[in-house]
Design a protein that fits this description.
4 strands, four-stranded antiparallel β-sheet, about 150 residues, alpha+beta
Length: about 150
């Protein structure tokens, strides 16, 4: 596994993954390669910023109607309506994970480009999972429960 300082060295993630993969596989065996699995959220945002990769505006902060539940900000949608006592309000937020609205919370943010997101991520002390994963608030095994229920295709 790469050290924290090695992860910050920019380079081709496929080459880095191949270098760090076990070399004791036998002829005819298949290898699954996950080139970004050793990268942190900060590594990814720094790479996007450094390489000038364009992303859709959805990845950056914008005004949105949200409400608070279990210490998280959730977007008001058809699948995540506020419950009794949860009051919607307007806030400038971004989502650290783009995905299922029922399992992803927002964070207060003013970041409108990759450099600003990287700076926010560098300053935070709460992981993406700890800050915005609603599944982890439902139960300790929330994601595993979803897998058993067929949420993920294999």
């Amino acid at each position: 596994m790469l050290s924290a300082s090695d992860r910050r060295v920019k380079g081709d993630p496929w080459v880095r993954c191949a270098r760090d993969s076990p070399s004791d596989h036998r002829r005819g065996e298949h290898i699954r390669v996950f080139p970004l699995s050793n990268w942190t959220e900060l590594d990814i945002w720094q790479y996007i910023a450094d390489e000038g990769i364009e992303l859709p505006p959805l990845y950056y902060a914008h005004r949105r109607t949200v409400f608070e539940r279990d210490g998280m900000l959730l977007g008001v949608t058809d699948v995540t309506p506020p419950l009794d006592g949860e009051v919607p309000f307007e806030e400038t937020v971004r989502f650290r994970t783009i995905g299922d609205a029922t399992g992803t919370g927002a964070i207060r943010s003013t970041a409108v480009n990759a450099h600003e997101v990287a700076a926010e991520v560098a300053a935070t002390r709460i992981t993406e999972r700890g800050a915005t994963r609603a599944d982890d608030r439902i139960s300790e095994a929330g994601m595993e429960d979803r897998k058993r229920e067929g949420y993920f295709w294999t």
